[in-house]
Amino acid sequence: MSLFSLFGALEVGLIFSLVALGVFISFRLLRFPDLTVDGSFPLGGAVCAVLIANGMDPFLATLIATLAGALAGMVTAVLNVHLKIMDLLASILMMIALYSINLRIMGRPNIPLIMEPTMFSILQPQWLADYIARPLILLMVVLVAKVLLDAYFSTRQGLAIRATGSNPRMSRAQGVNTGAMVILGMAISNALVGLAGAMFVQTQGGADISMGIGTIVIGLAAVIIGESILPARRIIFLTLAVVIGAVIYRFFIALALNSDFIGLQAQDLNLITAVLVVIALVIPLIKQRLTRRRHT
Amino acid sequence: MKSPIGKWLSLGALALALATPFSNVVAETKSVAATAIVEHPALDSVRDGVRAALEEAGYSGDKLKWQYQTAQGNTATAAQIARKFVGDRPDVIVAIATPSAQAVVASTKSVPVVFAAVTDPLAAQLVRSWDASGTNVTGVSDELELDRQMELVKRVLPNATRVGMVYNPGEANSVVVVERLRELLPTMGMTLVEAAAPRTVDVGSAARSLVGKVDVIYTNTDNNVVSAYESLVKVGTDTKTPLIASDTDSVARGAIAALGIDYYQHGVQAGKVAVRVLQGEAPGSIAPQKTGELSLYVNRSAAAAQGVTLSQELLDSAAEIID
User: Fold this and answer.
1) Candidates 1.10.540, 1.10.3470, 3.40.50, 1.10.1060; correct CATH number of A3-295?
2) Predicted model pTM
3) How many angstroms separate the Cα of B217 from the Cα of each of B182, B308, B320?
């Protein structure tokens, strides 16, 4: 595997670790099965690409894309909390609605940013090759996001969100406004996903209407891989595990892309990725069995 | 490069340089990496065409290191494939369809890239103009040249002056075609009559609104129109209004004729560009091309049903005749 391939996997992995952090907040902390992600990822990308293509500062465009993601998450939560639509259905409705909204925002199915300035072209120092600079900048972004999340989920409000997810009835009894906490948590979750979309379009040459397909699957896989590789209870390790899980998942894809030497072909890619993930999930189980056997 | 990795890379380059006497034995061997965003018949044909053109030029067997990857519809995977290819440093990367081409072009400014099956490479920011780019990028667009389309209308119906068009005003590609035809047709002594079909169910009634006002109905690859082509064919047959399409698939469904893209030939054309790059030409000095080879499909029974007699000259030049 070449350096380019490795850094490419790291780069895409770090972008999807933001998605994974968002999915972790909705699925794990809030226990809200949220598929909005498939729409809010391209939403962030679409908003960011349109604004940059119209000459806006890339940093401001990224901020607005993040807020757009937050708004999408809030709408899903409001559909569920106030209009009493089942959580899964509310998120599916939002996901399909966002497809049309994204097309409206973009005005056409594809907006290139190959020749536009991006956050990365501005921050990249002259002496550093872009394929190394991009993952480094992304690492900073992800670290800041992770540290902020860790800090926030240790505050009173952050703990209230976590309590809402683990025991809503008890939380209400303690005076927590659980509806507001769900809306807030979903906003944070989808803001991260919108930010990931904005990062994606700025590193990969532009926004495409099809870029959202399968986002939730990648996010969930990352969360589960992370949890099984680094089982933890404290929030700082939980978020770390999620980030690692996302990067590992992309390394598996890079590995699968390089598997032609054993006679596998292009169309086998998704299968190889799936098999690699299964192996990663099974290893802890085997280890557990082995240690148990030793005890008996 | 001044980074430690740069040093590491230049060490690798040194090692390669030292190994050159050995690699001289297979100096003619070239590596080509091809990628497409998804697997579907047209894109697969492009890939096969590229490969055929390479083999035609002698890059076959052990003279060609060929690799092919599809992103299976996933843009993030397309990005990773692009990075892998750039890292493998092949002699040329062939990128099929817009998202794959954008991912590759965003990943490298040095490895030669030949794009194919991209409709508008300017709008996709792959190249700045139709002139030689001066960069590492060139390729072949599958945009249909409308003057050739209108020449077909003239060949099928020499007396036609009023061209009707049913289209979805919400589809960007169709709006572009209509705007260009509005300018082009008067220069050929014809006029355009438009009928909007914002939904698939509107196609039939939009076509009926054209009856009596037009001599022929031309259809582009508008998704609404292509989806509801049968309703258009019914109007054409009932009222003897000839239909001419721009995609060859619609001919089997009841259009009289279409001068459309044969995606295998499109791939061959892109493959020939790749061969020029392999033989040492700089991609930046090769101007991006439009599809040269179009295939004429005609439907004799549809022509009879819509009251048109096809000339022998037309039948002789057809790649496919449907009865």
Assistant:
1) 1.10.3470
2) 0.80
3) 14, 13, 21
